[in-house]
Amino acid sequence: MPRFDLSPAELREYRPEVAEPADFDAFWARTLAESRAVGQAPELTRVESPLALVDVYDLAFSGFAGDVVRAWAVVPAGTTEPLPTVVEFNGYNGGRGLPHERLAWAASGYAWVFMDTRGQGSGWGTGGSTPDPHGTGPSVAGFMTRGILDPEQYYYRRVFTDAALLVDAVRELEFVDAARVAVTGTSQGGGIAFAAAGLSEGLVAVMPDVPFLCHFERAVGLTDRDPYHEVERYLAVHRGDAEQVFRTLSYFDGVNHARRATAPALVSVALMDPVCPPSTVYAAANHYGGEASVVEYAFNEHEGGQGVHWERQAAWLADLV
Amino acid sequence: MPRFDLSPAELREYRPEVAEPADFDAFWARTLAESRAVGQAPELTRVESPLALVDVYDLAFSGFAGDVVRAWAVVPAGTTEPLPTVVEFNGYNGGRGLPHERLAWAASGYAWVFMDTRGQGSGWGTGGSTPDPHGTGPSVAGFMTRGILDPEQYYYRRVFTDAALLVDAVRELEFVDAARVAVTGTSQGGGIAFAAAGLSEGLVAVMPDVPFLCHFERAVGLTDRDPYHEVERYLAVHRGDAEQVFRTLSYFDGVNHARRATAPALVSVALMDPVCPPSTVYAAANHYGGEASVVEYAFNEHEGGQGVHWERQAAWLADLV
Amino acid sequence: MPRFDLSPAELREYRPEVAEPADFDAFWARTLAESRAVGQAPELTRVESPLALVDVYDLAFSGFAGDVVRAWAVVPAGTTEPLPTVVEFNGYNGGRGLPHERLAWAASGYAWVFMDTRGQGSGWGTGGSTPDPHGTGPSVAGFMTRGILDPEQYYYRRVFTDAALLVDAVRELEFVDAARVAVTGTSQGGGIAFAAAGLSEGLVAVMPDVPFLCHFERAVGLTDRDPYHEVERYLAVHRGDAEQVFRTLSYFDGVNHARRATAPALVSVALMDPVCPPSTVYAAANHYGGEASVVEYAFNEHEGGQGVHWERQAAWLADLV
Amino acid sequence: MPRFDLSPAELREYRPEVAEPADFDAFWARTLAESRAVGQAPELTRVESPLALVDVYDLAFSGFAGDVVRAWAVVPAGTTEPLPTVVEFNGYNGGRGLPHERLAWAASGYAWVFMDTRGQGSGWGTGGSTPDPHGTGPSVAGFMTRGILDPEQYYYRRVFTDAALLVDAVRELEFVDAARVAVTGTSQGGGIAFAAAGLSEGLVAVMPDVPFLCHFERAVGLTDRDPYHEVERYLAVHRGDAEQVFRTLSYFDGVNHARRATAPALVSVALMDPVCPPSTVYAAANHYGGEASVVEYAFNEHEGGQGVHWERQAAWLADLV
Amino acid sequence: MPRFDLSPAELREYRPEVAEPADFDAFWARTLAESRAVGQAPELTRVESPLALVDVYDLAFSGFAGDVVRAWAVVPAGTTEPLPTVVEFNGYNGGRGLPHERLAWAASGYAWVFMDTRGQGSGWGTGGSTPDPHGTGPSVAGFMTRGILDPEQYYYRRVFTDAALLVDAVRELEFVDAARVAVTGTSQGGGIAFAAAGLSEGLVAVMPDVPFLCHFERAVGLTDRDPYHEVERYLAVHRGDAEQVFRTLSYFDGVNHARRATAPALVSVALMDPVCPPSTVYAAANHYGGEASVVEYAFNEHEGGQGVHWERQAAWLADLV
Amino acid sequence: MPRFDLSPAELREYRPEVAEPADFDAFWARTLAESRAVGQAPELTRVESPLALVDVYDLAFSGFAGDVVRAWAVVPAGTTEPLPTVVEFNGYNGGRGLPHERLAWAASGYAWVFMDTRGQGSGWGTGGSTPDPHGTGPSVAGFMTRGILDPEQYYYRRVFTDAALLVDAVRELEFVDAARVAVTGTSQGGGIAFAAAGLSEGLVAVMPDVPFLCHFERAVGLTDRDPYHEVERYLAVHRGDAEQVFRTLSYFDGVNHARRATAPALVSVALMDPVCPPSTVYAAANHYGGEASVVEYAFNEHEGGQGVHWERQAAWLADLV
User: Fold this and answer.
1) Domain range list for chain C
2) Which residue in chain D has the smallest CA separation from B309?
3) Which parts of the sequence bind substrate (chains A, B, C, D, E, F) (predicted)?
4) Cα–Cα distance for residue pair D288/D215, rounded to 1 Å
5) E274 vs F88: CA distance, rounded Å
6) Do chains C and A touch, with touching meaning 3 or more CB–CB pairs less than 8 Å apart?
7) Does residue B92 have a known ligand-binding role?
8) Known catalytic residues of C?
9) Beta carbons of A267 and A294 less than 8 angstroms apart
């Protein structure tokens, strides 16, 4: 994929107007309050594993509407003290997989928690195990358009609520230092991290990596790659619904969540990314409510900085915790 | 797509063993009984349209679990007498669209009813309007793997029940001659037609056109084209679930439904069809419980006979009604 | 296909200079006169069909050079009075197919006539039956470059003449009200409709839907999709022929035909159309000689508005007839 | 393209039954006689060129129906004596191009004549200049289905006649030794060479290189690559025409022409050729009426042996002339 | 990719004849002896990292011809006792990347050593840093055909020697228990593991995962996917070199190396693997010189079992060490 | 490929700043001097061939570091006098092939010499036979990134040196008029021709045809087609190396070599060329140090003018020699 978006100089200054509904804060305050009202205490179950250096737990917590959502929690073996903690969200259609697959944060002395994205986890990797027990109106194959005509019914209302409630739940765990919780994630996980950052108080750091779910009005039509393209296909069939669809999406736009976040942020962007175009990432980073640093990967597509970027994150986070 | 399946001679004799669960009939009897128990009378609403030669109705009926499902009903203008009726089901991810898009049956003097497939209708065409208000476990993008670990939860349990209950509902309409109801459909619609044929009594004819949803154990892995391929991708992630998945699918296999059907059938098959391979179609046709004629389209892929086949169907059905 | 053409605001003002040969009108006047001179009266033959609500006719009329061209004529059953009439032209490489495949206009009370495009009809659908008994110089596979070095020999000279003479012929039919004839068509059919509109007198309406054959100098090289791309491939081989080729095409450019048309027009354009780029459609619409309304489909590719647009056309046309 | 056809051992023995019409010889005798009856003497025009070592001529001869067909004739500069001669036919949709592009035969001391394939020459390379002044019924884009419903009207009737009449014409040239004329060609050119070999008397050698146009009933449906695939697409639309189409093709099948040829033949075949599958080539080679050697290129697709094979041909032919 | 290779039942019995050069053992004995003769002691350099739970080392050892080759060595933090050790080789065109990217073995209490494949490491991931300071004859892009005309010059002679010498080097490290060294790798890494197993003494286990580099004569031509396809392309140009090429490859065929291996083996195979077709994997497993278990992934392509298979390996290996 | 680069008007004025290292001339002077110091006299061996009109020689000359590089030399049969000479370089991954494949220059009375590109010659055609006996650091498959971190080690340092030394060698041949040597080549061959033109004295003409290897900083990222894309993939893995990579490439940039060339040049450019974008070609042509004419092929992709352009070259060169 060659260069197709704004030039590097333009990107760094790109701060577009992005629509925000008047009741954005009220919508989310109500949403979180309703789900918190029906939630229960998280359950932590020790899991046997060959991983001698770490302790592995299956974490079951109450997400949207009290639905049980699962996560892995992995900590250095024998941890008894509260640790700085990294909460991670996953990319599109991946599940939490198996705990041995992502060990770098725990091996670096953090408590690491990895959320299963409800309903997803069958597209690649080793699977997920959290259902999404809510139906949907007509939708394109995929998750992007489930319930897209109504913010109340939209799929990501449930996912973002899960994410915010996972931050709550994690803070109740005895091996977590509630004052030192960071959120991170790649692609969809980065978009969820922006949302968690906007919806949670007192995070120590936010690390969205080539984040998805930002500046939908630009993204839809700028790229023909899924998942943004799912919205385009929906609108190609439901020809009169564009206004309503983009109104729904405005409640979930990473730009609007980023505006409300205040913890220090380290954002990555890949300048040839055809999946999450760089201008959509910069739109969120440049509107970020706190201090945000952006790391550019000039010749990468959506894979971004991969392990190189993790080293950047690890060094940056170490200075904050 | 060149020839890739059995030879024509082999196809015509192909009658494979297909697994059938011991409680197949009990499962479906219970399923239909439960949904019928919560159903309500169908509602017919006249729709304004420029189509002067026909009357158009929006039909809302109670499908699975009493969910409201929509359909179009189109009849010759001013119909007052019960007519022979064609109930049609749609292809994968299409919706019922707009009533002027399929006028041939009504223009030929039939009452024509076209079911909206729940949750679908956003993939192509002009849309659908029936939600699927039931959640799902982790699934591949698409509809094929929603709830696939449990026959009770499987997506097509709801769709096939909708289809059978639509036959019930249609028979209550005053412009329908309940003794002369035929079912038809192309691709997914053909698979649903087989199911409706196996689950309904007293149909006058069954016309599956290049039907999907037949002989899953052969189809999955024989073609790399969606929708069968969705199951393969699910199993590629959920590596231990093949037995459970195929057990679920056995309740929905067109072969097993075809075995129970008795009305005369006209089945079409395209010999170069990479989506619904011809051997999977012949598997159902050759196991059909009544008299089944097969029309072969030797050089067609999944488009099959198109309008040419409709003329075959129209002539064949005219002799039966 | 993401957005690739002018912005919506630019499109609406786009009114490019398009070359027009000095003898454009003389060329066409002579062409039509010569073919009219050798024409014979149209022949209408009733066709048996299961379509009880309509009467179906095979219409054979004299097209270019007196060649026999076929069309379907379908009218409400038992029509005896002159009706408002819709003459429709088909998309690239489609044939007139079977009469039951397009019933909406006749079912809405119009006489509907559907022209077979000479030589075409073997690319998709259910076929055509009109030969093109004229040879060609070297040409790319397809129809776009047949005779392209000479306006006299160019393929579309024959097709556009067929279209204009079909309007003549239709007006001789007893079930047609000659004062209320509209022309329409999708893609290539839309381009032919522009030509018929420019070459015929007294049409009541013109409805080109995502029209092809407009503003060749921009289209060739803007898209790599056939059929415009056929011209590019021809010029890639015949490296010195660009001037001559574009001179030929200027006689057939929808922009030049649109300039001469005066009947009210309803034009559709799909803003992500990679086959008939939106700027080429707007070029014709913005040069249209009469009143032209444009309906935009913002998220569609070449499929455009499909059945949704037919409803727009039907409502718009009803007000005119 | 991996191996997909018969095994090498099976190929070498493959001698399928191929349908041949009873009037095959009568058809061709009449065809050639009619065209010969209206033909005129070939015209040879010296062409200026920078090619000092050879003399270049534009050859215009009378082909099918007396149509003027062009060819290049290139001979060693100053040739005054009759030379052994190679007549070459071109691949699909190529033209005769420019004389400097193929110099190997003339540089080896042969008179070399390269026929322009009528109507072709716009698909690749540097072009052709021979029109095909005969119309056609509905056809797929390309040349394979022009007039395919009737052997009299079929495109290759004209091309094969051109080829046989070119052999006639060449023998009239003073720099040609009429007793030492060989025919050759690659792909379509190889198929034409088989036809020329079957239709001409007294050739010294025949060298079809990865020949096309052989064993149509197997080829159509075995490969999804054009040009054979053009026939499949035609039959996919014209669903009832298979018998008639294959009857037409039987007059043009390289197998049937090969049966009638008697000059020594050197045939090449590429075992991974997805365009001209090896079994279709062996079908013709194994039915060849004279002595035929086959050179296999085991790991090549349709490019075959390229320049390596020309060296094989040159050595083989040198022994015969 | 649908099923394309032998059936599961055939695969399990597949034990083809595979050519083996008479001097296979002599070739390798000499090769290893020569390189050992010029080798130097491995150098281990502690690397700073945020990974608190493990110690990370850069290991530089003498590979083929004494060339310096790099590896990562990662052990539980503070390890002082010899540990069971896993030596891992990488997939095609990947480098050793960064040490935090693969932590599962070290986190499970093993010393883990990961070899950089010489010259590779620029195709994906986070890079490699080992040059291949040896030239090559003409080769296809990629590594498969470098020096392929001569076993002495062939690229994998250097790589396999590196692998065997890494096993030597690892046994000299103080944190390694020389009697409990296992080798593993995925794809190319699995092929190298077979070679290391055949060339090394006293390994405790061998775990090739969807191994590449097995049964070349079948693989080349069975799949059109790289890297096997590189050989096919080479042979398509070098048309006379097949015998010599396959002779070279016979020294490197995983089947021949597997025959000589004796340590217990756990082999994985993906039944729909288009890159390393299952029959080529079974060919090596069924010829394996010791006890070999095969784990099948029935619906996977080349990704195979991924993290699920690592759990299988970890459990299996724990029983052996 | 549609238009994607600058407009024709912009292209003709495009004269970008291109980085040039301060020691460019010193680097090349030293490089050539070192290789000349170890070179030996060229060896010319007569080759048997059926090509009676020309004499064919295998030319072995000393290239970079004294490595033996091969070329074909072809001259009119019996040449005894010094002739004007064309030295040609080949496209990416092609070899010198067989002498009969390119006869136009020799047939026009020139001595023609065609260099084998070291290490290449296995990608297409009939092969090469010159090894590249120098190793490389980690590289992407292909030749573009071999040694790319260091100008001393970069692959094209060897190739460009070969080219300059071939000009030296050719001038020693008795059938060559040293004062009338021209260089030419297509694609990669055109880039090498620019380099040879900048590094050699006293050439009579330079004819780069759709040249590659020009203006790397623009090319990498503007096109996603190999070979430029190889550099992009390298940088996507080696995320910190861009500065060093582009510094290396600046020694090899056709723009910098063109600046130093003084012989008259005829450059071709294809305006839709996605492999060697037209702006990169114009960058070199507009910086050319002597008189440069540019021939545009407006509708061509990377095939450019093909045989049509050869005629342009032949006429242009004839005026100079």
Assistant:
1) 8-318
2) D239
3) 92
4) 13
5) 41
6) yes
7) yes
8) 187, 273, 302
9) yes
